[in-house]
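User: Could you check the structure of this?
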Amino acid sequence: MWKRYSADTYTPRDPFPVSQPARQPGAVVALVGKVENGNHSRSRKKEHLERIPRITDDLFGYNVDGKLLLLRFEKKDRKYDKFAALPFTKGVTERESGRTMLILGSNAHHIEAMQGQFNGVVWTPGEVNENKKKYGDTIRWINVGGTREGFVGLDYDPNLKKDDGVATTADDISFLAKTLMEYGYDPDKRLYLLTPPYIVESPAGKERRARGFNTLRDWAEKK
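Assistant: Sure, the predicted structure tokens are below.
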């Protein structure tokens, strides 16, 4: 098991603003926070939306500057030591359209960054006895490392609803793999299926790896 921490002491974000940002055009976009004194952004006031042409290692390097890394956790599996201290980046991709968002230099949660950028997204933080979250027709994922080294971690649970923001079918996984390759990922990048909401490989993921599903290419070709 892994836990995602920033390298500095964690503090909460500023309260979520009432108004939502206008939808940023483009197939690949990013919520970009202003890195100050080596720390990532915790305020929407210091973040902006940006269209990006493709996904590159330079983009992931921005999270190193903001100390957004995957660090050791006491219950982790020792065989994953090689991934410690690699850049940690959150992403989300919409089914069918392939519209993808990265979160760079910010500790925003997926659902917060997605406000106004994807259809069907609902979030009601702070309401009495309720914190409703609907992710529209999207799949949440994380990236550890760059476009080749490290791994893509994909939340997967066939028992959840489509608007829970996770992959629910093998076709979802295959679609995401193809989409990331189109946007700049190396086909040999590893893809792990995770048990949401933890960064821990699921039993289904281990079973699929044993059958040869290890990389984006493996899932894209899904035979």
